[in-house]
């Protein structure tokens, strides 16, 4: 049975122990691992490993011992309660080793949790789980978590009393960080508020948030929009040393100035405009970008975007001009415009 995102989240939160198994696949191994962990914990409870009700097995081991999976599914433990077999890193090449054991499954056997990377829709393993009436297949994609998923993570950590603006900050962090880093941030926030019953504020979130994931790039974009031209050279040199290419820099600059333009164009003013942005602007940059939008104004930002798009098109053309030098010149011109604003 193929599960859509909402259906998969319900299944992970409250799995049925009398089903054959669940295939969890996706390109992001961290996201897949977190969903697998959630599923097994909710299926077996917290003491499954100590009670030997969970069997872990690398899928590659089935090449040398094809019967190992069937034996693990049928095995009976000493402790009562549901059992599961976790088969890790499965591939379509191993489908012929996996599906025969699943065909022998019967009620009372262990629930089989299979994790895999990106599987083609036509692949044997994915098709088997999607078409089986007693099994589930859930694709985990790189979409940011929904508000409901974020709230569930907060509730699990004991964080129920959260200010509305702090919640917006957490949503922005959830989009900026990978799932593992976001979970660590929530755990850190939970410890930060331990024995503190007051509401979680934006200041609390900022105190626990990791440093910006692209700090140097953020510094460069802010320096450009604020007219601090002398700082651009050293920042560009650091980005180039980190492997950031001119086209990626042009895309980031376009995104930053489009955000400023949207804020400056908002009929209720830049402050309201920044808060309406989707995805949300990172809370550490929000106030600075409001000031930048006010400084530039809508019309100057339109001219700035024309300049950035022109540079981007030149980068993507057959021009022989040095690409990083072209971007540096564009950013310096923008910074000089900001100085006159």
TrEMBL record:
Cross-referenced InterPro entries: DNA_polIII_delta
Keywords per UniProt: DNA replication, DNA-directed DNA polymerase, Nucleotidyltransferase, Transferase
Origin: domain of life: Bacteria
Cited NCBIfam families: holA
Name this polypeptide is given: DNA polymerase III subunit delta
Organism: Maritimibacter dapengensis
Top-level taxonomy: Bacteria, Pseudomonadati, Pseudomonadota, Alphaproteobacteria, Rhodobacterales
């Amino acid at each position: 049975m193929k599960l859509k995102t909402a259906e998969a989240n319900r299944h992970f939160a409250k799995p049925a122990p009398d089903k054959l198994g669940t295939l969890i696949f996706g390109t992001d191994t961290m996201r897949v691992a977190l969903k697998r962990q959630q599923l097994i914990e909710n299926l077996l409870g917290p003491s499954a490993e100590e009670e030997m009700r969970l069997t872990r097995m690398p899928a590659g081991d089935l090449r040398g011992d094809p019967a190992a999976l069937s034996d693990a599914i049928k095995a009976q433990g000493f402790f009562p309660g549901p059992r599961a077999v976790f088969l890790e890193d499965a591939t379509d090449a191993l489908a012929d080793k996996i599906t025969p054991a699943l065909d022998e499954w019967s009620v009372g056997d262990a629930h089989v949790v299979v994790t895999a990377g990106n599987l083609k829709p036509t692949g044997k393993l994915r098709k088997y789980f999607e078409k089986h009436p007693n099994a589930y297949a859930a694709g985990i994609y790189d979409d940011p978590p929904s508000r409901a998923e974020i709230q569930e993570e907060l509730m699990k950590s004991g964080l129920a009393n959260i200010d509305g603006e702090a919640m917006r900050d957490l949503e922005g962090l959830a989009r900026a960080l990978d799932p593992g880093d976001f979970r660590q941030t929530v755990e850190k926030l939970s410890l930060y508020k331990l024995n503190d019953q007051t509401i979680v504020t934006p200041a609390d979130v900022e105190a626990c948030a990791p440093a910006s994931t692209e700090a140097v790039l953020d510094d460069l974009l802010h320096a450009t929009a604020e007219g601090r031209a002398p700082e651009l050279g050293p920042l560009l040199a650091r980005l180039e040393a980190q492997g950031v290419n001119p086209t990626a820099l042009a895309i980031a600059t376009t995104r930053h100035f489009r955000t400023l333009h949207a804020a400056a164009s908002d009929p209720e003013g830049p402050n309201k405009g920044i808060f309406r942005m989707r995805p949300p602007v990172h809370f550490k940059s929000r106030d600075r970008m409001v000031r930048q939008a006010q400084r530039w104004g809508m019309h100057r930002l339109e001219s700035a975007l024309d300049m950035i798009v022109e540079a981007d098109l030149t980068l993507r053309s057959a021009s022989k001009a040095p690409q990083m030098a072209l971007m540096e010149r564009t950013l310096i011109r923008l910074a000089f415009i900001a100085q006159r604003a």
